[in-house]
Design goal:
The structure is a homodimer. Chain A is an alpha+beta fold. Helix content of chain A is 42%, strand content 20%. Chain A has a four-stranded mixed sheet. The two termini of chain A are 26 Å apart. The interface between A and B is medium-sized, with 15 and 15 residues. β2 of chain A pairs antiparallel with β2 of chain B, so a sheet runs across the interface. Chains A, B: InterPro entries: aa-tRNA-synth_II/BPL/LPL, HisRS-like_core.
Chain lengths: 271, 271
C-alpha cells in the first residue's frame, strides 16, 4: 500500500478534475501565505509520486491505497465532506491487459464482499471523443460528457433539454442519442458502434474488443459486465477505458469507478 | 475504534496544549471565512465526542483510535508534519484502576511488539503541583514543567540555567532539584517524596501508591516501570498520573506517552 500526504499545493490539484469538481476542492490558506488543499482523490497524488520517482515504473508499478479524501460539498445522504477512498492502479503499460486486470480485481472484490447483483459498466473515452466528432460538436466534449453522465439520474428527456440549453443542435443531439442508446450483448454493442462511428472511434472500439478478450481470458463471467456507450465518468483526466460498478435495483448510484489516465504524469514532467 | 474528522474549528484546539505546542497547530483559513485547524492529537477530538454524547460514559467509555495528526514543525529526523497516532483512553471513572489499566495495556503492547529493553516512567501532575508550591513558585508551574521536561535532553546544568533565566530563585531551583532528582526503588521514591513534599502533594503520592498496587494486581513486572518525579509531559491538559515509555540506550526519546486529563470535557459542557 502507498500513503500520500493529506495536503498538497492548491495549484497541483487544479485543472485535473473538471470545473464542477474543482469547486469542491478544499482550498485552505496557510499562515505562511501558501495556498494548500486537502487530498481530493488518490489519483493525482499517485501521479505526483510517479513523476517524482520515475524509476518506480520499471517495468510496471502496481499499488493500492486506502486513505481519506476531502470534498467541500453540502453534506447529504451518502455524501460526506471527509470519506475514505480505496484505489488500485497499475502504471507503466499501454496494454489493455492492465485495464482488464483492474476490472478483474474489482470483480473479485465484489464477489468477495458477497455481492452478486452488480454490473460493471465499461466504455472508452475515445468512443465519447468519436461520438462528439460524429455529432460535429467536437469542441464541446466536456459539456456533452457532463450532461450524459447524468442520464441514469435525471433521464433522457432532461439530458436532451440540458444539451439543447448548451446550444447543441437538435440534429447533434439526435446523433449523440443514436450512440448512447445502443444496447445489447457485448458484440452487438461493439458492432453497432463500429457501424455508426467506426470511422472516428475505431481505436476506442478496438481497445474495448481487447479488454473483452482479456476479461474472457481472466475468467470473468460475461454476465457481470456490459459495454455502455453512455458511461462518461465525471473527471477530466481519463483518456481510455472507463468503468463503473452499479448495484442492480439498489438506486444508490455507482459504488466503484475508474479508468485509464495516460497524460496526468506528463503534466508534471513535461513528457 | 473511533474515528474523528481531520478538521476542527481552530478555537476548539486553542488553550489546551500549551503555548509552545499551540504554535504547531495547523491553522488554515477556509474560503468561507472560517478558521479551521487540522487534528493536532486524538485527545481533544475525543473530549469533544464525549461532550456531545454524554450517554457514552455510562458507566465507562473505552476506545482506541488510530489516525493521522498534523503539526506545523520543521521536518527533521523522526519528526514529521503528518504522522499517525494511536491512542487508548478510558472515560468516566476517577479510579486509579483506569490509569493502571492503560499502563498495563501499554506494557502488553511493548512486550507484544517484542521490546524488552523499555521502561515506563510514571509521575503525577499533582506531585509537580506540590513541588512548585514547596519551591514557592506556584504561579510558575507551566514554565517549570516546560524546563524540567527537557532534563533528559539537555541535562541538569542547562535546566538550572533555563530556570534561572525565568527568574526562578537559586533557592527555589535547589528545592525543585531536591524533588526531581529523587530516585530509587518504587517505595523509596514515594517515601522520599512524602518526606519532602508530603504536606502539599499527598494526594498525588497517594494516587501513585494506588497505581502501584493495581499494577501489581495486574501482574506487571515491576522492573519495567519506575516513578520519576522529573517527568512532566508537555501538554497542558493533564491533571493526574502521567507516563512515558523510553527504550533504554536507544537515544530516541519517548515512544509512548500519556496521562489522566480530567477537566478537558468540562471545558465544552461547563461541568
Amino acid at each position: 500500500p502507498l500513503e500520500t500526504p493529506a495536503m498538497e499545493f492548491y495549484d497541483i490539484l487544479t485543472g485535473k478534475y473538471g470545473k464542477e469538481a474543482e469547486n469542491l476542492i478544499y482550498r485552505l490558506d496557510y499562515k505562511d501565505g501558501k495556498t494548500l488543499a486537502l487530498r481530493y482523490d488518490l489519483t493525482v497524488p499517485l501521479s505526483r509520486v510517479i513523476a517524482m520517482n520515475a524509476e518506480l515504473v520499471r517495468p510496471i508499478f502496481k499499488r493500492y491505497q486506502i486513505q481519506q479524501v476531502w470534498r467541500g460539498e453540502r453534506p447529504q445522504r451518502g455524501r460526506y465532506r471527509e470519506f475514505t477512498q480505496c484505489d488500485i492502479d497499475a502504471i507503466g503499460s499501454t496494454s489493455m491487459l492492465q485495464d482488464a486486470e483492474i476490472i478483474a480485481a474489482i470483480y473479485e472484490m465484489m464477489i468477495g464482499f458477497g455481492f452478486h447483483q452488480f454490473e460493471i459498466l465499461i466504455n472508452n473515452r475515445k468512443i465519447l471523443d468519436g461520438m462528439v466528432k460524429y455529432a460535429e460538436v467536437g469542441d464541446r466534449l466536456k459539456e456533452v460528457c457532463r450532461s450524459i453522465d447524468k442520464l441514469e439520474k435525471i433521464g433522457a428527456e432532461k439530458v436532451r433539454q440540458e444539451l439543447a440549453k448548451s446550444d447543441i443542435s437538435a440534429r447533434a443531439i439526435k446523433k449523440i442519442f443514436s450512440v448512447i442508446e445502443i444496447e445489447g450483448h457485448h458484440e452487438t454493442v461493439l458492432d453497432e458502434l463500429e457501424k455508426i462511428i467506426g470511422d472516428v472511434a475505431q481505436e476506442g472500439i478496438g481497445e474495448l474488443r481487447e479488454v473483452r478478450s482479456y476479461l474472457s481470458d481472466l475468467g470473468i463471467n460475461e454476465g457481470y459486465y456490459r459495454f455502455d456507450p453512455a458511461l462518461a465518468r465525471g473527471l477530466d483526466y481519463y483518456t481510455g477505458p472507463v468503468f463503473e460498478v452499479v448495484i442492480k435495483d439498489a438506486g444508490i448510484g455507482s459504488v466503484v469507478g475508474g479508468g485509464r489516465w495516460d497524460t496526468l504524469i506528463g503534466q508534471y514532467t513535461g513528457k
